[in-house]
Amino acid sequence: MKKNNRLVLGEESAVMKETRENGGISIIVNPGALQLLKLGNLDPYLIYEKALLDQIEMKIPRIDFIGADVNDLYDEWKQKPAEFTPMHVRLLIWLKNNAAQHNYEQNGNSWVLIN
Question: pLDDT, tens digit, for every residue of 10-54?
């Protein structure tokens, strides 16, 4: 598998293991930057969403969510306040609601770019 042909989302430790063993890229934000955003009352989600959008705009072929069933997580978290929702789940909710507008089609726990 080519190293950068997929974006891997999920809980950080599982994502790091997956990308190390099977390739792919992940969204890793410097903890110091996250702390500064929190101190400034800014939602760190903005950085993660921007990183996701950057990959989508570069037309990464697939986005894989690991560690849990995306439909179950979506149903569990979609109505809960964002500030209590884990970051990877917030990205999953964004994908469920917006990926099709960017020519991505959900296939199980993945979104695949369609031409």
Answer: 999 999 999 999 999 999 889 898 889 889 999 999 899 999 999
Q: Is residue 67 part of a domain?
A: yes
Residue 16: DSSP 8-state: H
pTM to 2 decimal places? 0.90
DSSP strands (E only) in 2-109 = 6-9, 62-65, 104-107
Cβ atoms of 3 and 23 closer than 8 Å: yes
Q: How many domains does the chain have?
A: 1
Give the Cα separation of 58 and 73 in Å (integer).
27
Using CA atoms, how far apart are residues 102 and 95, in angstroms rounded to an integer? 10
